[in-house]
């Protein structure tokens, strides 16, 4: 079977590409870097064919795709395309001929100067652009969109007894709180569901919380940076509680959401919601020699944790990797890639 993964250079997408190749799929992967270094990938035989059309074969920076083209099965079954979220029709030829489409590409930054241009447009227009390409191709059976818990629990409802898939973030709440990334994901998911309903597209969303675990890509992504920020000499940690989940579980859930015929709707993915004080304690226990922050940056009571239902993702066969293991895998990986001094 042939599948497409958008934003293949990313943290989650790289792991997803790896799993898909391991499962025998042919993967058409989109990347956006416009630089024109390459040739190397072609020479290595990592790319076999040049595809016509707008989503043309990508000849970009080999450093950003080296980890992908080195994956087992890549030489035979991975095809890289250049496609831009904001360019209409850009994904037509990437998606064409695919049974399944995994749309993961979306900017994940917390600092932004221009939320509309940097986050909201690529998230919302990009998602609609990809979904629109899917409707043009008769081969596409299902689309799996990487949404986020940011599109689930950012509203004023009390988070008891547990947050679940029936929850939706409130765009006004996100706007008022200046949570621009959360707003981008909330608006993108809402637009996606409206589009899918209108066009009769079989769509499933995966809604993970902070994703950690081993990195495949050479660059540092925002959620792994949340762990790194506790390690490189910070004196304090923010008064924050986050939901955490391992990238291997998230990537597996994506493939399951495509492969399990009865998969439907949304899937919240949180192993546990844990305050950073507890994350620091786990780090201290695992790595007594690391220089870790000693106290919270403010004196207020700790931001409370809450529960997120695991029932629906269990129906996909996900048995969550425990947070302590995920933290350990993240640190080992950050160390191996030279991010920890
Ligand atoms: P990464 O930053 O590692 O990857 C993001 C991907 O999106 C990259 O391939 C990036 O391409 C691509 N991208 C970003 N902006 C654009 C743009 N304007 N045009 C085209 N491509 C773009 O992030 P993650 O792997 O962490 O995130 C992947 C998806 O998962 C996103 O949809 C994110 O919202 C979602 N998610 C992530 C969570 C996490 O904790 N990591 C939690 C919940 C959801 P390039 O390499 O060229 O920059």
UniProtKB/TrEMBL annotation:
Domain spans labelled NAD-dependent epimerase/dehydratase: 3-263
Any GO MF annotation of the entry: oxidoreductase activity, acting on the CH-OH group of donors, NAD or NADP as acceptor
Alphabetical UniProt keywords: NADP, Oxidoreductase
Protein name: NAD-dependent epimerase/dehydratase domain-containing protein
Source organism superkingdom: Eukaryota
Organism: Microthlaspi erraticum
The keyword NADP is annotated on this UniProt entry: yes
UniProt xrefs under Gene3D superfamilies: NAD(P)-binding Rossmann-like Domain
UniProt keyword annotation of Transferase present: no
Similarity remark: Belongs to the NAD(P)-dependent epimerase/dehydratase family. Dihydroflavonol-4-reductase subfamily.
InterPro entries from the UniProt entry: Epimerase_deHydtase (IPR001509), NAD(P)-bd_dom_sf (IPR036291), NAD(P)_dehydrat-like (IPR050425)
């Amino acid at each position: 079977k042939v599948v497409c993964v958008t934003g293949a250079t990313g943290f989650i997408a790289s792991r997803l590409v790896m799993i898909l190749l391991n499962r025998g799929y042919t993967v058409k992967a989109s990347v956006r870097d416009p630089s024109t270094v390459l040739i190397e990938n072609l020479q290595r035989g990592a790319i076999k064919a040049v595809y016509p059309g707008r989503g043309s074969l990508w000849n970009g920076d080999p450093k950003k795709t080296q980890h992908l083209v080195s994956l087992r099965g890549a030489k035979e079954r991975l095809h890289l395309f250049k496609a831009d979220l904001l360019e209409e029709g850009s994904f037509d030829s990437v998606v064409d001929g695919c049974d399944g489409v995994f749309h993961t590409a979306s900017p994940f930054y917390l600092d932004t100067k221009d939320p509309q241009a940097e986050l909201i447009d690529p998230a919302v227009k990009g998602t609609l652009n990809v979904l629109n390409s899917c409707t043009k191709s008769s081969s596409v059976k299902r689309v799996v969109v990487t949404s986020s818990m940011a599109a689930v629990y950012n509203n004023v409802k009390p988070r008891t007894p547990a947050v679940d898939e029936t929850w939706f973030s409130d765009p006004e709440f996100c706007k008022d709180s200046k949570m621009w990334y959360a707003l981008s994901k909330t608006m993108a998911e809402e637009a996606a569901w409206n589009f899918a309903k209108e066009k009769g597209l079989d769509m499933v969303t995966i809604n993970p919380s902070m994703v950690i675990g081993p990195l495949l890509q050479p660059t540092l992504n925002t959620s792994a940076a949340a762990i790194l920020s506790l390690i490189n000499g910070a004196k304090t940690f923010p008064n924050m509680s986050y939901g955490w989940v391992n990238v291997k579980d998230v990537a597996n859930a994506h493939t399951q959401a495509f492969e399990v015929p009865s998969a439907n709707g949304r899937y919240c993915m949180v192993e546990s919601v844990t305050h950073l004080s507890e994350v620091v304690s786990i780090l201290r226990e695992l790595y007594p020699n690391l220089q870790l922050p000693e106290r919270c940056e403010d004196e207020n009571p700790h931001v409370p944790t809450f529960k997120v239902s695991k029932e629906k993702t269990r129906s996909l066969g996900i048995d969550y990797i425990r947070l302590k293991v995920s933290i350990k895998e993240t640190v080992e990986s950050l160390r191996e890639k030279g991010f920890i001094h």
